Amino acid sequence: GQQVMQIPQYQHVQEGEDFTTYCNSSTTLSNIQWYKQRPGGHPVFLIQLVKSGEVKKQKRLTFQFGEAKKNSSLHITATQTTDVGTYFCAGTDSWGKLQFGAGTQVVVTP
Amino acid sequence: SQTIHQWPATLVQPVGSPLSLECTVEGTSNPNLYWYRQAAGRGLQLLFYSVGIGQISSEVPQNLSASRPQDRQFILSSKKLLLSDSGFYLCACSRALETQYFGPGTRLLVL
């Protein structure tokens, strides 16, 4: 069955630095979604990518969907303490089933 | 836009006791509904999903069950809780292949 893998599992970042988290699927995806979960909170939808090679930006966050629609990345520039949390990717397969990755837990050091 | 309510927010239950967690959705009709469990510091494990009233699909074998008595009501139950049932239970809804929106969750501690 479909598996969605996220790396790294943990990311320690100095405030002001950039970092990237990656999401890889064993099968081609219909779309990919990204969610952010703040400590103690629930996952909140960030963005959805649908087209092959699609790139979307939200302020300091840049999301990419691979050409083969099997991988995605989230790049954050000039990290701030408000970026703390766990970032999940979730892929929808051809049967419409959404599977979440295990998440990347981001810790920001001032 | 839809709003998801979950209660209770937190729950401490002894091993062997029953469980009933409720999720209700406002602002949408005929949604797909989901129950996830999240262990501390871990990812989301899909437990059940429902595409309509009375239609429940189970993703993993366990001692939990789910029911959907109304279009916008989803209930997670257990007859006898285990220690391993502790976790953060999240209800989510979506329309077809669209984004999933999560409720605030219920933190369950089984002692």
Low-confidence stretches of chain A: none
Instruction: Count the beta strands of chain A.
Output: 11
SSE topology string of chain B: EEEEEEEEEEE
Instruction: Using the CA coordinates, give the radius of gyration of chain B.
Output: 13 Å
Which structural class best describes the helix and strand composition of chain B?
Answer: mainly beta
Largest interface: A-B, 21 and 17 residues
Strand content of chain A: over 45%
The geometry of chain B reads as globular
Mean pLDDT of chain B: 92
H-E string of chain A: EEEEEEEEEEE
| N-end to C-end Cα span of chain B | 38 Å
Q: Tell me the Rg of chain A in angstroms.
A: 13 Å
| Tally of separate helices of chain B | 0
Number of strands of chain B: 11
Helix content of chain B: under 10%
Distance N to C terminus of chain A = 41 Å
Q: What does the oligomeric state look like here?
A: heterodimer
Content of β-strand of chain B: over 45%
Structural class of chain A: mainly beta
Architecture overview:
The complex is a heterodimer of chains A (110) and B (111). Chain A contains no helices and 11 strands. Chain A has strands spanning 4-7, 10-14, 19-25, 31-37, 44-49, 55-58, 61-65, 71-76, 85-92, 98-100, 104-109. In chain A, a hairpin with a 6-residue loop joins strand 4 and strand 5. Chain A is globular. Helix content of chain B is 0%, strand content 59%. Chain B has strands at residues 3-7, 10-13, 19-26, 32-38, 44-52, 55-58, 64-70, 73-78, 87-94, 101-102, 106-110. The N and C termini of chain B lie far apart (38 Å). The interface between A and B is medium-sized, with 21 and 17 residues.
